[in-house]
Specification:
CATH topology: Growth Hormone, Chain: A
CATH superfamily: MFS general substrate transporter like domains
Strand order of the largest sheet: 1-2
Number of domains: 1
Distance between the termini: 32 Å
Helix content: over 70%
CATH architecture: Up-down Bundle
Radius of gyration: 21 Å
Structural class: mainly alpha
Strand content: under 5%
Length: about 450
């Protein structure tokens, strides 16, 4: 029987991540649909789109720095402090994006301010998932860690649904109203996001695992002394997030700006795929509690590498039925195998003493690479026939991420108290005995 605290921690992770990533994803949608016209109107259409997508990627530059800072705070002073801070920072900066003057009003100052606020968003996002995952993993029952930690990613999908759904009526506005004031409304909605999120997170207790450990004075030093290979492994595996950024940002821009598909239809692809993911993520995480983390994660990576080809091809030929069918299968089902498992897969590589730092630094470097994937593939080409090169690039990333995860130890049967400890064989009383060495 599961007690109330694991469920409360999972719920707090779900709600907090939904609210946090609502803020983060409305920026990505606006970058794909609006920002090239509002902040970069002096450039040609293709160049303006490329610059707008680059501002989306800029937010990922701050993530490794934020991961070091927030990872230290979370492993030194507690998970709860990080979760409250990240929510406040994301909400405030997102609200300010909605208040920015346009290029037509202040010239180059407008995109400069946009980049500054995007960097602050990235700083916030750096500690969000690692903090929520650490909190839910350390409260979870031994045999259901993947299931409970998956609620962080379910919350992320819910935030994306909310962000996309908010943009549906906004994108339907007449072009003049959309560019004048309509795009600002989703950003201003973050004020309510902050209030709701703070109420939820301030009532959550610190994890008993963190309260029992001897806190390291400099967690990052312990991390790179004892877990540098795990950090590297997480960095490479986390580049699988390129599937998400290419699906939500590049493919949307390619479909609307290059092929000429309706923006409302493409936004609905994202909404429906994420609705499916809300169900698929906990189901596939539950499967990982039974068969292991690696089989589910690796299968998800390989499946994404295969399905990206028919998805982009279906966009290139303008087939709405195929776009919906393949998009939902790719992002709603197969990618959920990755999202449902990585919180447990990555978190279980580290001991509680450095868990938040390890997850934050490893994932955020990988996510930083993934954040620029839309800009990289846009540079490959924006013509109608260039989808194949984009698909090959994405598939390559998927295979590399799968290989990194396959090299990790399987941890689904390791007790929580032993996660991240190095096992070694030492001669004791004449025979080899297994012991656990703490980092």
């Amino acid at each position: 029987m599961t007690g109330p605290m694991p469920r409360k921690a999972a719920l707090a992770a779900w709600i907090g991540s939904a609210l946090e990533y609502y803020d983060f994803f409305i920026y990505g949608t606006a970058a794909a649909l609006v920002f090239n016209k509002v902040f970069f109107p002096a450039y040609a259409s293709a160049t303006g789109t490329l610059l707008a997508l680059a501002t989306f990627g800029v937010g990922y530059l701050a993530r490794p720095v934020g991961a070091v800072i927030l990872g230290h705070i979370g492993d030194r002073f507690g998970r709860k402090r990080v979760l409250v801070f990240t929510l406040l920072l994301m909400g405030i900066t997102t609200f300010c994006v909605g208040c920015l003057p346009t290029y037509g009003q202040v010239g180059l100052l407008a995109p400069v301010l946009l980049v500054v606020l995007r960097l602050l968003q990235g700083l916030s996002a750096a500690g969000e998932q690692a903090g929520a995952n650490s909190m839910s993993l350390e409260h979870a029952p031994e045999h259901r860690r993947a299931f409970f930690t998956s609620f962080t990613l379910s919350g992320t999908q819910a935030g994306q649904i909310l962000a996309t759904a908010i943009f549906l009526p906004v994108a339907a506005l007449p072009q003049e109203q959309l560019l004048a004031w309509g795009w600002r409304l989703p950003f201003w909605g973050s004020a309510l996001v902050v209030i709701v999120g703070l109420v939820v997170r301030r009532t959550l207790a610190e994890t008993p695992v963190f309260q029992r450990i001897e806190v390291a004075k400099l967690p990052i030093a312990v991390l790179f002394r004892d877990h540098w290979t795990d950090v590297l492994r997480v960095v490479v595996a986390a580049t699988i997030a390129s599937v998400s950024t290419i699906f939500t940002v590049y493919a949307l821009s390619y479909a609307v700006n290059t092929i000429g598909l309706a923006s409302s239809s493409m936004l609905w692809v994202g909404v429906l795929a994420n609705v499916v993911a809300l169900v698929a993520i906990p189901l596939l995480a539950g499967l990982a509690d039974r068969v292991g983390r690696k089989p589910v994660f690796v299968a998800g990576c390989v499946g994404c590498g295969v399905l990206i080809f028919p998805y982009l091809w279906s966009i290139s030929i303008g087939s709405y039925p195929l776009v919906f069918a393949v998009g939902i299968l790719l992002f709603g089902v197969v990618y959920s195998g990755v999202n449902g498992v990585w919180p447990a897969l990555y978190g279980e590589m580290f001991s509680a003493k450095v868990r938040l730092s390890g997850m934050a630094i490893g994932t955020q470097i990988g996510f930083a690479i993934a954040g620029f994937a839309p800009s990289v593939v846009a540079a490959i080409g924006t013509a109608k026939q260039d989808w194949l090169g984009v698909a090959i690039f994405t598939a390559g990333v998927c295979l590399v991420a799968a290989a990194a995860a396959a090299s990790a130890p399987e941890t689904h049967r390791v007790p929580t108290s032993e996660l991240g400890f190095r096992r070694r064989t030492e001669p004791m009383t004449g025979s080899p005995q297994s012991s656990v060495a703490r980092p």
